[in-house]
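The instructor's notes for this session suggest beginning with a concrete chain rather than abstract definitions. Hand out the sequence below and ask the class to guess, before any prediction is shown, which regions might be ordered.
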Amino acid sequence: MRAKITVVGGGFVGATTAHFLAAHELGDIVLVDIAPGVPQGKSLDLSQAAPVEGFDLKIVGTNSYAETANSSIVVITAGLPRKPGMSRDELVAVNSKIIKDVCENVKKYSPNAIVLVVTNPLDAMVYVAWKVTGFPPERIIGMAGVLDSARMRRFIADEVGVSVEDVSALVLGGHGDTMIPLTRYANVGGIPLTDLLPKEKIDAIVERTRNGGAEIVELLKTGSAYYAPAASVVAMVESILRDKKRVLPCAAYLNGEYGVNGLFIGVPVMLGARGVEKVFEIKFTPEEKTAFDTTAGHVKALVAAL
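After discussion, reveal the predicted structure:
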């Protein structure tokens, strides 16, 4: 029996997520949106690509959560996107109401689901999802670090002139201006980044990583990124449904790790069939510890603003 995956939000991020999920044949897909006809039309279009692309699964679009019942995973992309000049934090009030409504339905129809949150401001929205559903915290996870690390890998690959497949990078902390691209852990084929690029180029990559989302928003004018966020969340879904136990940076609940209690912050975790199965604590330099304390303080302030 195939897993059922619900994607909430039929916009660019949600529809692209459904597309990538189908291409990976990870399970039957339910696309939910409040706009009449939108999820139905997009799911019908995607299902008609199946004979060409060769994926065998059921794809349904709906305005009702009843059809999402007993989902294994629920991916929440619903919410307003950023506009040029906006920070992710400015979305907190309106998107928290959307997340609350979504999660009440998730709790009602899929009480055993693992919930992956993509909506911004990410770190606060994961917290809202946890509070509203009442699910164990290991089943509530935020997608951010996979995306931010992917952006950093892309920039490194371009600068060094190598394949992205041979680049490793790790970005922790909140999904915003206080995120922490850990250059000490970045490498190309095992070669430390510091051996390949001068400090000023590495600093430029760090800055561009922090502003990766804003750069795309400025270019698009009327929307935000969707290909890379969708690909990133699908990597998380695959690790969970196939119990791959990949180690990925995700917004996970901290219960004393890194000196933080009761917040969801981007850290390296092992994703398996039970969700977050382990939080990895890495040893920070004094400078990195200060940066992490800063990002934790920012997340705490966002949650308090709710």
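Then share the key points. The mean pLDDT is 95. The CA atoms of residues 146 and 235 lie 8 Å apart.
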